[in-house]
Design goal:
Layout: H1 3-14, H2 16-34, H3 39-52, H4 71-76, H5 79-82, H6 86-112, H7 116-135, H8 140-154, H9 159-175, H10 180-194, H11 198-212, H12 214-218, H13 220-239, H14 250-256, H15 264-289, H16 296-312, H17 325-337, H18 340-357, H19 367-375, H20 379-396
Helix pairs in contact: 2-6, 2-7, 6-8, 6-17, 7-17, 8-9, 9-11, 10-15, 10-16, 15-16, 16-17, 16-20, 17-18, 17-20, 18-20
Length: 419
């Protein structure tokens, strides 16, 4: 093999996962554009046009459903694409979202210090969820990009990097509440472990700014009227005919598959209890890590928050499970750090999680079976299993999770090198 061929082969081998993801994403984007109207994008674009024309985008049923995201999201993100020709706007929206996701995932992987084969495995496993999100023109692609970008900045980053990270998380949380658990859990950790009181301030001010900035264009009367309609229509939509049971969250699974039913209020109480337990875990982890710059806690807490958001959110959708990407990243990094039975348990959890989350909803199964999986909301079982496995193995032996930490740099000696 000639030297140039060898270099090319090594490059492809080391980056096979991301190359696979990029190729599949390009093909899927082409398929999306050839399919014609895309339900989610149509809603987003219609809402943006209405808002910029001085009309309330909430409380009206569009051709493909309702708009429940924030005014800032409609006006300042989808407003970038809504006034373009349809195919150009749709293509630009999903191309930018997908590109940001791949860049942010690469950044997070680099900061988490995954080895070449493991980073390829990450892209191979997450590509299935990316396909579904692209074909449904889901906003979760861009939201996951911001979550991963924020995680990358928090890993091995200083105060300025965390400031940017929490600005990103404020944007993501303003767009969709599923990013709130990750932001709040990391804030708890950094306040206790690093005495970082600037990040909560930045996050809070960011949320307030994004909440009120549409009032400049809409005026106070329309702004507050729109928020009132948004709150009422969202509540009505969730509770009418138990609509919340049609989504892919763990309470739908318990009701339909296990015949263990909850009222909607009961589901919120359980979710708050789980969120409280995660907050306590973050505090304990922060106290445990004081005195050493161990970033494994940050990675795992972000992953557990992503697992919580996809498992317990009342409006969690099958095509939006790309949001579990930080959990997958945390699981794969722990797998690198562990040996023996712990590594075997993580291997089983990652494999089972991928089977439930991705394969069971793919063309590997007949259409009628996929319909059954969707009806019984099996998908969140995968994120729940993976979350529990990651949490238990991480907590059992914190000292061995230090390979993601930043140890003191030894003085270089002649002939030494770093990989």
């Amino acid at each position: 093999m000639r030297p140039r061929d060898s270099v090319t082969f090594n490059f492809v081998t080391r980056h096979s996962g991301i190359l696979f993801c990029v190729v599949i994403a390009v093909v899927t984007l082409g398929q999306l554009l050839l399919r014609g109207p895309s339900g989610h994008y149509d809603i987003f674009a219609d809402a943006a046009r209405l808002a910029w024309n001085g009309q309330n985008p909430y409380g009206r049923e569009y051709q493909f459903g309702f708009y429940f995201y924030s005014l800032a999201c409609a006006m300042y993100f989808f407003g970038l694409f809504a006034f373009l020709p349809y195919s150009l706007g749709l293509g630009a929206y999903m191309t930018i979202s997908t590109g940001l996701f791949i860049v942010a995932a690469t950044m997070a992987i680099d900061r988490a210090q995954l080895r070449a084969r493991t980073r390829s495995l990450f892209f191979f496993l997450i590509t299935s969820e990316l396909i579904g999100a692209i074909l449904n023109a889901k906003l979760e692609v861009a939201i996951t990009a911001m979550n991963l970008g924020a995680l990358a900045l928090c890993l091995r980053g200083g105060r300025r990097a965390r400031t940017v990270a929490f600005i990103l998380l404020a944007v993501a949380a303003n767009w969709k509440f599923q990013s709130l658990p990750m932001a709040l859990l990391l804030l708890v950790y950094f306040v206790v472990a690093r005495r970082d009181f600037l990040s909560p301030l930045v996050f809070g001010l960011g949320l307030a700014f994004l909440h009120f900035v549409p009032m400049v264009a809409l005026g106070p009367e329309l702004f507050f009227a729109a928020l009132a309609v948004w709150k009422e229509s969202l509540s009505t939509y969730i509770l009418t005919g138990d609509n919340w049971l049609s989504f892919q969250q763990i309470f739908s699974f318990s009701t339909k598959a296990l015949h263990v039913s909850f009222s909607y209020l009961g589901t919120q109480v359980v979710s708050l209890l789980v969120a409280g337990a995660l907050a306590v875990l973050a505090v304990l982890a922060a106290r445990r890590s004081q005195g050493r710059n161990d970033e494994t806690d940050v990675l795992v807490l972000a992953g557990l928050a992503a697992g919580f958001a996809t498992t317990f959110s009342p409006l969690s959708q099958s095509a939006g499970f790309i949001l579990y990407a930080p959990l997958l990243l945390a699981a794969l990094r722990l797998w690198e750090l562990r040996t023996g039975r712990e590594r075997q348990a993580l291997s089983a959890a990652v494999g089972l999680g991928f089977f439930i989350i991705s394969l069971m909803y793919s063309d590997f199964f007949p259409r009628h079976l996929r319909g059954e999986f969707l009806y019984y909301a099996v998908k969140p079982v995968g994120t729940l299993v993976l979350s529990l496995t990651v949490a238990i193995i991480w907590w059992r032996a914190p000292g061995r999770a230090s390979a993601v930490s930043t140890p003191p740099t030894p003085p270089a000696t002649e002939g030494s090198h770093r990989p």
